[in-house]
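Lay summary

Proteins are chains of building blocks that fold into shapes. Our project writes down both the chain and a compact code for its shape. Here are two examples, one after the other.
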Amino acid sequence: MTETPHAGSMLRCGKHLLDLTRPRVMGILNVTPDSFSDGGRHQRLDDARRHAERMLAEGADIIDVGGESTRPGAQPVALDAERERVLPVVEMLTREFDALVSVDTSAPQIITEAARAGAGLINDVRALTRDGALAAAAQSALPVCLMHMQGEPQTMQQAPHYAEPIEVAVIDFLRQRVAACEQAGIPRARLLLDPGFGFAKTLEHNLQLLNRLSALDALDLPLLVGVSRKRMIGEALGREVSQRLPGGLALAVMALERGARILRVHDVAPTRDAIDMAWAVLQERVENE
């Protein structure tokens, strides 16, 4: 466990201040027709409102709104379609619930417009590699989560291969993206990192990466981890998507032990209990050593 808080432990997210000296839960709100576990369930604004309200009541610290599925094999989404899905939900969540909203996007136009709509965090699976994304993120003045991925969602699971240990590949990629952000005027204090479980990684890669997750401490930035309902659980346990909660809770606790500070999940209430219980045990160790 990381005992010393990172330099970015207090993260300014628009008008919100996110304290990362303790673990936080990010609830997933997909407003897409084709996300792997909940596609089509929250496309209508009323459905999105009800689901977000439930996650906030269950203890979500952040609501992550995504308008483009990035599951393996997912097809790109037109900018207008992503805009129509995402922006009304961001506006509703900030207006009605004063929620800390993260927007899961790679499009520079959506980064800019979501910031204007009240979003407090940008969560980009492509780590600001699209043309214009670095400039848009810098201009937004919002924190950004950079994720590791090789290739694009359409092709990323077609025999992913790394010439070095997976944790080394992830660290090298993220270090380069952090440097690109700093060069573009985004300070380190506004950055978070996501190792990208399930993105261009085999089951063996995912297991190795979780075991070695604490190696990412070398980057000295807060870690966001998303393993909820993912294929790695299905492959390891032989479970369908609807049966992956117990495996996901085990992975969330293990990620927390290895330094994760934000857990991105579909099932907020059980995850909140699992990580709060694990955190109580870990804190006892810190306080009594």
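And here is the second example, written the same way.
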Amino acid sequence: MSEPGGARGIIAVDKMDGKVLFLNPTTYETEVVLDGFPRNVHELLALPETGLAYVPIFGDGIHGRNPNPQHLVCVFDLGKRAHVATIDTRPYIAPHTPKLGPDGLIYITCENSAVVAVIDRKTNAVVEALDTGSTNGHRLIISPDGSRLYTENEEDATVSVIDLPKRKLLGKIATPRPLAGIAISADGRTLVAVDDAEPVLFLIDAEAGRIREEVRLEGVPKAAQIARYAPDNSIIGVTSLTSDTVSLIDPSFRQQTAIKVGRQPMDMAFHGDELFIACQGDGSVHVIDVPNKRHKRSFAAGVGCETLAFF
């Protein structure tokens, strides 16, 4: 899992305090704090190769209960550590999960509009919207070959399947209970959908469009939140917001280790042989030694960061 070279910095989204932070990648000290955003910064797409990062402004609520949805995505210059542009997603509202597509466009769920908005990075404008056939599209993932885009539709208990080149909704995969997160294997054959009601992962056969297996999380008493593969796909991290744990799971789903972290862990960033967990409930970031599957250290960052990335 080791990565060559070092990082120039860390960008972190402090959702609980409405700020974007830049941290030293070695000492983890907060060096720059950017403020003044509408409520509330939420989620992150960092593209170190372009020197830019994108942070949606979701609204003042949470998924399914967002009374004042926003319609903005803020663009940050990673080198300058500055907010340099703002994208307006209207008429689509509550932008949530941005991902870079194989065509160089950004795909982002707009929950309250039940679409995936398509953003042209050259013009910082929405150029298209893809119907998800859902109530609220929550998170999305794109298959490694770029042929499919999947959204997990939390309260609908479905995964929408979109033919990305044809811009066509192919159908939806039903799950027994509501969902909270989604990931995809390196070969594109297995979708990992996180159960929002029980500590379970639904392993979905992407080609067949049905659940192949349910995997119960060991040592995790309550439902999980986010699943993320390591860049080399050697391991999967799964956080449980209500259990204060991160689970390290091998790609065969036969071995797993639950590790206690801070309060309300959310998203993760793999960096070399370490996994960084942002815990929004207590303003801590926890560092996991991945090869040895143990807690290594923690440090403070803002009031409550939900996600972070190295660049």
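What can we say about the second shape? Residues 147 and 257 are 33 Å apart (CA to CA).
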